[in-house]
Amino acid sequence: MSENIELEMKIKEVLHTVYDPEIPVNIYDLGLVYQVEAKNDGNVLIVMTLTAPGCPVAGDIMQEVTQKVQALEGVTDADVRLTFDPPWNKDMMTEEAKLELGFL
């Protein structure tokens, strides 16, 4: 269980500003963020995935997430981890993302 719900809400807000350049939907609504955990000491863990393992902009997306989260007040360190377990699929998207991309 998280120690810092308020900081996690700020992190989720900033994650809504990170986009895969090939998809006009933010990574949070795409369902690419699997875990956001903020401790009271400001250490943050983010576990996320990509739409495909061979994503050519993977490094750029991970760097943008790290930079934006570390810039938040109250964050002392951001550990952004990439996983492909479970593999991403379009069912992980929010209804808004599915509508935007024409899946509904």
From TrEMBL:
It comes from the Bacteria. Gene3D superfamilies: Fe-S cluster assembly (FSCA). Residues 10-80 form the MIP18 family-like domain. InterPro entries: Fe-S_Maturation_MIP18, FSCA_dom_sf, MIP18-like. This is FeS assembly SUF system protein.
